[in-house]
Amino acid sequence: MNKGKFFLIASSLIIIVFIAVYAGITLTSNLGKSDAEVSAEDAGKRLEKLYSKISVNTAEPVKGQIDINPVDVAESLPEISKFPITVTNTTDLYVEIFSSTEKGGTGTDGWLSDAASDFNSSNPSINGKPVSVMIRNIASGTATDYIKSGKYIPDAFTPSNELWGEMVKAAGVKTELISSRLVGNVPGIVIAKAKHDELVNSYGAINVKTVTEAIANNEFAMGYTDPFASSTGLNFLVTALKTFDNGNPLSSEAVQGFEQFQVNVPFIASTTIQMRDAATSGMLDGFVLEYQTFVNTPGDLKNEYVFTPFGVRHDSPLYALGDISNEKKEILKAFTTFVTDEKYQVNAKERGFNGLDDYKAELEPLDGPTLSAAQKVWKEKKNGAKPIAAVFVTDVSGSMDGEALNRLKESLTQGQKYLGKDNMIGLVSYSSDVTINLPIARYDTNQQSLFVGTVNSLQASGGTATFDGVVVAIKMLQDYMAANPDVKPLIFVLSDGETNEGHSLKDIRGLIEGYKIPIYTIGYNADIQALQSISSINEAASINADTDDVVYKISNLFNVQM
Predict the structure, then answer these.
(1) Is 114 helix (H, G, I), strand (E, B) or coil?
(2) Helices and strands per DSSP (H, E), number in the chain
(3) CA of 403: how far to CAs of 390, 406, 416, 524, in Å?
(4) Distance CA 193, CA 307 (A)
(5) How far apart are CA 362 and CA 222, in angstroms?
(6) Residue 49: alpha-carbon gap to chain centroid
(7) For residue 285, what are the CA distances in angstroms to 65, 296, 384, 455?
């Protein structure tokens, strides 16, 4: 054998032995460890490796002047023109109606819009005067904020359910019920069939009481929507509280029961779409939804899930608001008669309404003060015993200079009032490198002042290393949680979505998946799709801030998640 062949064989044997030894060490090092322990260890090593390649600076925190006044809802709301008019009035004498989105939109969600267009085309008159209606498409919770705050009060309001009407009434706005029902609908808990059968075997009948028991026992993973914005979310909240104390949903027994149940709720969505996407990804066993949306959802939802109604019905009551004239009240009555005619009710059924008319409300009506107090309980107790630890990752690259950075600052300084004193907050900024501007600490008055001052001091320049900023935020959270394990981590990325330096999403996707930290993204003049791809990894929301309602949107996001 010549020397060349000898060295080649010897080298090959050495490589084989090395691989075998390495594999043996790797296998034996993982013996006795669970998959979670192995993946956590791997994630830790990956995090350290990525972090070591990033240029990380530390800035001296800057104090700012905080605003101690309560949140001004009216100020955060955009001009009402933000919300589309789906039916325009055709006469000088008309009524403007705020309509919930499942019926005041277009297509499947345009039943009331289409009926209203027909009403206007029928040339109705009151006392010999031609009349018409205008429909503005706006979610019930948002509409209630406009009306309660006095920012904008239409002639009439048809929310999804009566709960919003009670809240408007409690705010001191004069209301008159014109009709308790324009069209039938019900909210429900939508449960995957296999899980539904399992719960039936364990608990018997499926209702909110048995569902809350199953969640409290950590046997059922269910999501629901923001009770400040969603009709179904508000309905579920008060129904759940009533299951713990039917006589007084605000008693200490009810609040304690809710807190215990809430500990095991894995997901609260800002919107129905966000929650539905989380459910279809397999993250949830069940979620809440209106029946009309359930039957109109494309795909196999109806075949793979069971719908169980709960709470008060969503029959779209119609209220006259303020001191409107008798003529306008007569228009509303004539409109009610028109849309409740058999022709339009049959049409509504074709669009998914009027489907469960046999269901009787299992919840007695609650007054406005009780509903507002229930929302306050939810805000205080929704995180259970686990406070939030959140890091804000702010883009200060050159592409953010000007209006984008100014809007980022405005949305954070206004939205920070919703962050909650018991939560832990930190902030980093990034351009070509990353700066830790504010280490994680409890959001007391001092940290609030530092947060506001730091945000106001941000300046834009340089490249865009978005994913380096995310890695630093994950490292900050992991270091903090090593000493404070009983917190829930979150990350908020505020950016234009462009990345031209540092790590890529491909580099850190496994890290994000491994740590399972939700990353909420807020885009300014942004590549929204790029930001959505970050948020979708762990079922978080993505907001487009290029609209005049960015402060309101972010305030709602923080209200839900913080």
Answers:
(1) helix
(2) 23, 19
(3) 25, 5, 20, 9
(4) 10
(5) 20
(6) 33
(7) 45, 20, 20, 39
Distance (Å, whole) CA 62 – CA 166:
45
Phi, psi of 506 (to 5 degrees): -60, -40
> Quick one: tokens of 458?
């941000």
8 A C-beta contact, residue 143 and residue 159:
yes
Q: Which helix (H) or strand (E) holds 158?
A: strand 156-158
Q: What is the pLDDT of residues 176-208, one digit of tens each?
A: 999 999 999 999 999 999 999 999 999 988 988
515 near 423, Cβ under 8 Å? Answer: no
Whether residue 522 contacts residue 494, with contact meaning beta carbons closer than 8 Å, is answered with: yes
Nearest to 264 by CA among 208, 224, 220: 220
- Cα separation, 148 vs 118, whole angstroms: 31
Taking CA atoms, 354 is separated from 18, 351, 358, in Å, by 71, 9, 10
The label of the residue with tokens 């999501």 reads 223
Instruction: State how far the Cα of 387 lies from the Cα of 518, in Å rounded to an integer.
Output: 15
The pLDDT mean for the chain works out to 86
Token pair listed for 366: 């609650």
| Nearest-angstrom CA–CA distance, 263 and 386 | 8
Q: Is the distance from CB of 204 to CB of 210 less than 8 angstroms?
A: yes
pTM confidence score: 0.82
- Report the DSSP pairing between strands 542-544 and 129-137: unpaired
Nearest CA to 169 out of 317, 330, 310 is that of 317
> Between the CA of residue 423 and those of 161, 440, 453, 562, what are the distances in Å?
33, 10, 18, 7
Half-sphere exposure at residue 506, Cβ-oriented, CA atoms within 13 angstroms: 0
Residues 352 and 291 sit within 8 Å (Cβ to Cβ): yes
The two structure tokens encoding residue 312? 């008060």
- Of 506 and 135, the structure prediction assigns the larger pLDDT to 135
Handedness of CA 193, 194, 197, 203 (dihedral sign): negative
At residue 421, the pLDDT reads 83
Task: Give the three-state DSSP class for 385.
Answer: coil
Residues in the chain, overall count: 562
Identify the H or E element spanning 436.
strand 434-442
- pLDDT at residue 385, as a whole number: 64
Burial class (CB in 10 A: 0-12, 13-18, 19+), 107: exposed
Is 424 in contact with 459 (CB distance < 8 Å)? no
Q: Is 497 left (phi over 0), alpha (psi -120 to 50) or beta?
A: left
* Amino acid 547: pLDDT: 63
Asked if 519 contacts 47 with a C-beta cutoff of 8 angstroms, the reply is: no
Per-residue H/E/C for 169-189: HHCCCCEEEEECCCCCCCEEE
